[in-house]
Amino acid sequence: MNLIELEHRARELLEASTHDFIAGGADDELTLQDNVAAWSRYKLRPRVLRRVGEASTRTTVLGTPIATPIMAAPISYQRLIHPDGEGATARGVAAAGSLMVVSTRATVSLEDIANAAPELPPTMPPTMAPRMPLRAAPPPVR
Asked: 120 FRET partner, CA 20 to 30 A, in 10, 30, 64, 84?
């Protein structure tokens, strides 16, 4: 199954409004069209019958080792598609040995995402790390 077939299957399975929200873009969808055109210019060139020795897709992101250079992009409102929402994505990403980026419009808290896939390392840009402990701090007593 290729991406076009997956998109057609999603249209069959999802409510129209949910599919349109996920598959659509903002305003006139010009950026969406540009992105599709840009990705269509990339081609995979299979290299067969060549000595490759030991091949690996392993790399690091923000110092965290991952099995493949493919990560889950931030997608909002994932519970529209699956009852576990971002928790299900976290489990799948962890099983694949990769990372996910959580949307600011997530339907599951960061804590619940972390609990859904405890093996998924919490990775964030160094500029954001100092701000995260504030989230865990109890509210001030008034």
From this structure: 10
